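Section 5.1 Outputs to date
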Amino acid sequence: MISIIIRAAKNTVSYPAVAIWILIAVGAAVMGPFGTYSGFGWLPRSIYWFAICGSSVFLSQLVRGIVGRYIRDVLSWRFDVIAIAGVTLVLTPFVFKLTQFMVPAAEGTPPALWRIGLFVLLIGILLTAIRRIYRFQQLPETMRDGAGRSGAGGDTAPAGTQSAVQPMEPVADAHDGCRLHQRLPMEMREPILHLSARDHFVDVETVSALYSLRMRFADAVAEMDGVAGHVIHRSHWISADAIRGPKREGGKMFLVLSNGTKVPVSRTYRPRLEAAGIL
């Protein structure tokens, strides 16, 4: 939970998120929408909108991080619905109490709780729709080098894949120079645990989320620069740092990761894993 809070705080003050919400806050302070221009002086109005905008971004990042721990497919509608509902439930009381606190020094009556909740809900739906449209439009451009190539899971292990457990730098440092890590949305840039091929896509599993990229599996593994890991199946790569141990079920071998995910091990790659002391 602490890591989610820290990541939410970092995302709130990182570029471009911080530039966007500051510009919105400045614009709202100048224009004074929803009666704040006539109801508040310049300084209280600025404080009000900076508090609203900054806390909105932070709480949104926090809620999405928590929801991502339980719903790994962050591209699903279920994730969006629960995230929007969570942000509305958390942010509405904050906005309501802040408005109540500042209204005594101003004229007029603060909006009812349900009105504020409805406004927060509509804004959440709008931003989610914009995020989905943006991601959809970015996929062909960002993954242009991987688009149109056939077969994501049939490649042999890339030559650069590490086959032995080696001393690693801290995982955060290792991911700083990782090209695949840079392809992820800002709010999902946490340690990558697992890559899996699915048709023409690669599912990237991080500590608390899952994100799909349109590219070849071999290319995705090649872009895990500086992160020690193993191809354990023609469709699966795992981070060496995430391995917690082997597990056999129904005659099949799996490796259990730090987040509880069980990844199948194929017979082809078992000798390498045995040589590395993992099996």
